[in-house]
Design goal:
The complex is a heterodimer of chains A (about 110) and B (about 110). Chain A is mainly beta. Chain A contains no helices and twelve strands. Chain B is mostly beta strands. Chain B is about 0% helix and about 50% strand. In chain B, strand 7 and strand 8 form a beta hairpin. Classes of the chains: A mainly beta (about 110), B mainly beta (about 110).
Chain lengths: ~110, ~110
């Protein structure tokens, strides 16, 4: 079974600073995809960034970057220059065999 | 506002009653998903459709839950009878294809069972 682990239940970050959200995963299959989603208090899950297991370079999307360390089975999300609107729940997810499995999430609170 | 349309946004009902949720995916998206998200946890897949066919419903409690996507476009998820433990957020998502395509989610339906 595929497993996603997010060990940080909650984090505080100062506005304009960077924050790293940890994600580790467990799979024996060489082909998989890794995703990060943001869920504000309104409830919608917003897709942020994707990393394929065969991608050689770390994915980046604006202020979001994914620190992919395949040998360590980790896919940490880095948010640079945090904004107040970044306060939300963040979920790491892995796609395998057409299914998406989510971690438990990390709550990020950005302080002014 | 999300591109995947869901209704209602909120639903409060008593146990033993029937409840239904509706989802309209992004136009052209062949794959549709229903998830249940308990407060403080990540979403869990209930059912996955490819066009009008069910691809995976292994986590759907079939004694009380049913889902359909008759014409391969919009979908309905039903619970009958509802139980107290069904209180959760129900999320619908769609993707262009199965596999490693990003899934795009709706705003969800918050269900409270009294």
């Amino acid at each position: 079974a595929q497993k996603i682990t997010q060990t940080q239940p909650g984090m505080f970050v100062q506005e304009k600073e960077a924050v790293t959200l940890d994600c580790t995963y467990d799979t024996s299959d060489p082909s998989y995809g890794l995703f990060w989603y943001k869920q504000p208090s309104s409830g919608e899950m917003i897709f942020l960034i994707y990393q394929g297991s065969y991608d050689q370079q770390n994915a980046t999307e604006g202020r979001y970057s994914l620190n992919f360390q395949k040998a360590r089975k980790s896919a940490n999300l880095v948010i640079s220059a945090s904004q107040l609107g970044d306060s939300a729940m963040y979920f790491c997810a892995m796609s395998f065999d057409y299914k998406l499995s989510f971690g438990a999430g990390t709550t990020v609170t950005v302080r002014a | 506002e999300a591109e995947v349309a869901q209704s209602p946004r909120y639903k409060i009902t008593e146990k033993s009653q029937a409840v239904a949720f509706w989802c309209d995916p992004i136009s052209g998206h062949a794959t549709l998903y229903w998830y249940r998200q308990i407060l403080g946890q990540g979403p869990e897949l209930l059912v996955q459709f490819q066009d009008e066919s069910v691809v995976d419903d292994s986590q759907l409690p079939k004694d009380r839950f049913s889902a359909e996507r008759l014409k391969g476009v919009d979908s309905t998820l039903k619970i009958q009878p509802a139980e107290l433990g069904d209180s959760a957020m129900y999320l619908c998502a769609s993707s262009a294809q199965q596999g490693y395509q990003p899934q795009h989610f709706g705003d969800g339906t918050r269900l409270s069972i009294l």
